[in-house]
């Protein structure tokens, strides 16, 4: 069977729906470093036991693809020691998707790390590169030709800024220099991963899921805000895209430093660009030791901020897609979604963003897929269980799933896009 021309699906990640095995995020929880004191991921959405039932939801929303992540601490509990049981389980999952006619999209790294990886120095250790190759080789050997779309790294820039510069995610460092070292190793690890995937799963495509934001000056009249917004956009959105296009990295963080390095083989190791888009930020100049600005979320269009406090800004989706298009590769929208308890708001978000996507496609952009975040409500990293991103609501006491009206809208939008009708989907919002 050939890969569907347009992937229409939903995304999850292991830790967020299956719950925590021992990894660097469970350590982080125990150190009470989440924004919600006392919160624990635990069994998360119960997907570790309910995965078959959850997969059964996919055909009911017209999904022809599903993006999920592999938890390295399960697959490689000790360095270089692989769990046959964990690998077999992943294979069963992929087989089940095939049975349902759903294309698997596998993320190999989605923020979490085994405790031993952290103890060995994490991504700052040059040995992390060969280690990632070894891990990916084991996974690709187990899943082989069944998986044809691979995402090596989810949001490396978010991990680097959150984990190595701001220190708010594991490993909790506050050093641009350390972030740059980790960045270099992660990109080399990507190249190594693409290389083994080409051997173990020939003909499949490989990419990175890149979180992108629209950047705006907080005070339009302020030269410094405008300038800083451009710097922010370069640091956050464009540096990685340029690296993918050219192999050259020039990463500049105003007030913190600049790193330049080259990753030969990076352009050849990317077959698509994965775009995760959620919001727009406003940048404000504010000089203080070690930093020159802040970012804030505003609501100038009065759509209401999401339960993450993020602005709803569909127009920015078009802008970041155009930036990603400039890398010259096909795009897969690997995440887009909203945290809200008001499903009417989710419907509006979904319709408006899919409309932007349809417009970019009509304008000639090669966009090969859209994945909504998320299938079911799940554990949102630092914010815990409060934000609700699911097309299906989860009752965390009973683990019961309840279909939201947005799941119906998702089904209709998908049918429209995949019919090849083109143009903008004119789907009425459910009441
Ligand atoms: C993205 C993450 C994903 C999820 C969404 C809301 O940055 O990749 O795991 O938490 O945000």
Termini gap: 38 Å
Pairing-aware structural class of the strands and helices? alpha/beta
Assembly level? single chain
**Helix coverage percent:** 40-55%
List the strand order in the largest sheet. 1-2-3-4-5-8-10-11
* Biggest pleated-sheet summary: 8 strands, parallel, barrel
How would the global form be characterised?
Answer: globular
| Total of DSSP H or I helical runs spanning 4+ residues | 13
Hetero groups in this structure are: beta-D-fucopyranose
Q: Indicate the radius of gyration in whole angstroms.
A: 20 Å
Strand and helix order: EHHHEHHEHHEHHEHEEEEHEHEEEH
Care to count the β-strands?
13
Features:
8-stranded parallel β-barrel, binds beta-D-fucopyranose, 13 strands, globular, single chain, alpha/beta, 431 residues
Topology:
Layout: E1 7-11, H1 14-18, H2 24-30, H3 47-60, E2 65-69, H4 72-75, H5 84-100, E3 103-107, H6 115-119, H7 127-143, E4 149-154, H8 156-165, H9 176-200, E5 205-217, H10 223-246, E6 248-253, E7 257-262, E8 272-288, E9 291-296, H11 314-325, E10 331-336, H12 343-362, E11 367-372, E12 392-394, E13 401-403, H13 405-418
Parallel strand pairs: 1-2, 1-11, 2-3, 3-4, 4-5, 5-8, 8-10, 10-11
Antiparallel strand pairs: 6-7, 8-9, 12-13
Helix pairs in contact: 3-5, 5-7, 7-9, 8-9, 11-12, 12-13
The chain binds beta-D-fucopyranose.
